[in-house]
Amino acid sequence: MFRPWEISNSASTSDENSVQRRKRHLSSDSQDIVLSVYNKLLKRMGDKGVIKETSELTNVPIRTVCRIVSAGSNHLPRKRTKISYKRIDNFTEEHVRRTIYNFYLNNEIPTLRKIYQSLMRSEAGFEYSETTLWRLLKKLGFKYGKSDERRTVMESPRLLLLREKFINEIR
């Protein structure tokens, strides 16, 4: 049976016991396996010697088995969900671009907070957070730069050159 927490030692020496073993943390999958072995043995054997038997079967120290069992199935941290900026459609991306360009047309400095407030007030509605907007701006190629000692949103020089090249080709 494959046990992911075991590490194969191809170069074993005779004084292996004298060298103190380095502590390794068990992955969450390994902890799940230890917990499921414990639960199966608990159903079959009752309460006596289950932790010791689990320790022997899984090659995990008794103290670690006790810690995993006491934590129960809540030992895993919550998994963060993926940020939804990848699901933003092209219409919303274009709406964000137009909002930034409108700031420049009105001679205003587009900061993240101003852009976000403007998008929230618009009719199209922007149901994402400021952090998601920041990630979207990075994805669209905008970057922050200094203008009059204030940080503002600007397009990267690479995008400016590509746009200029495209317009020249069309002309």
TrEMBL record:
Q: Where is this region: Disordered?
A: 1-25
Q: Which domain of life is it from?
A: Eukaryota
Q: Could you tell me where the Polar residues compositional bias lies?
A: 7-17
The protein's name in its UniProt record? (apollo) hypothetical protein
Source organism (scientific name): Parnassius apollo
Q: What is the lineage of its organism?
A: Eukaryota, Metazoa, Ecdysozoa, Arthropoda, Hexapoda
